[in-house]
């Protein structure tokens, strides 16, 4: 294992991630780096693919970023060789990997390296059924099950994900759970945001706003959300819906066509990828998750709860555990149940709904603050370098 020199007693942690494009794992890495104790730790980031939208944000922390330019798919011999060479130059004390591709690449690189660098895997995906996954993802999961017994530690962000992976052969001895954390000083209630966002959308100040935050992907099940919106419109026609995320914009003709089919053009607002999520989230009356599968510990739920916004979520990953008694949980792929849960919160007395939001924020502060989560990772890194 590389040793800390007298010149620098800091622990160098190299974070290897599949890409720095939009996604929950990328956002968590960014949040994690924003709170890393730089007096004790020296972080470095390696993206297996390109820089993506998060590279420039991470660079503001004065953290080195390297890219390997790998194309989507299983890591190649060439990319592994480049990674081994780069790790040889950096001589990290710990490797923290993020997501399946990076986990496998990090472990193979450590095995090929002369220095035995402890590798800590990060798994941010849940597996309801292998049948719902792509062939490549299934292959990566199975390879990971074998290699998991060689790694130093596996960190799952959800209990459900941990159980699912262990059932598929992942090492129970090496596994642990550290949930995602949330910056409660950034994501907080904001009456000003509620008024400003409604004004930008050309909506009345008292317009009821339900949000779905997530990239356009089958697992997010935007069709489920849109069908539920159509059902809700029958009883609450003044409700508006805010959809935010990569490819969730008017250039997405498939999404636009779905909205037109339900005559919701005047009620669904597509904002695409945004950098002011703390503001948009705080503007919501309800935050919703309509996902069909794949979620582990969705960031958008905790961020909304931190803003004092009650959530209605599908029972995927640890969503139900996060929300607990502060919102509503419904089965996936059931637009009727989703619409009815929204309706229940809409028809609540305003004071009762606001109280739910307060309870939600207090839950995040108590159990999922970013600082406490970062501390858990840093204690793990210190233990791996003892």
> Which strands sit side by side, in order, in the main sheet?
3-2-1-4-5-6-7
Main sheet specs: 7 strands, parallel
- The averaged pLDDT comes out at 93
Category by helix and strand content: alpha/beta
Q: What low-confidence regions span 5 or more consecutive residues with pLDDT below 50? A: none
Indicate the percent of residues in helices: 40-55%
Question: How many separate helices?
Answer: 15
Q: In angstroms, what separates the terminal alpha carbons?
A: 10 Å
C-alpha-based Rg, rounded: 21 Å
Report the strand count.
Answer: 13
> Beta-sheet strand percentage?
15-25%
Order of helices and strands: EHEHEHEHEHEHEHEHEHEHEHEHEHHH
Shape label:
globular
Give an overview of the whole structure.
It is a single chain. This protein is α/β, with parallel strands linked by helices. Helices cover 42% and strands 16% of the residues. The protein contains 15 helices and 13 strands. The chain has helices spanning 24-35, 55-59, 77-90, 100-112, 135-147, 159-167, 191-201, 222-233, 253-261, 277-282, 299-306, 319-323, 335-346, 350-367, 370-384; strands spanning 11-17, 41-47, 65-67, 94-98, 119-123, 153-156, 175-177, 209-213, 240-244, 268-272, 286-289, 311-314, 328-330. It has a 7-stranded parallel β-sheet with strand order 3-2-1-4-5-6-7, with helices on both faces. The chain is globular and about 65 Å long.
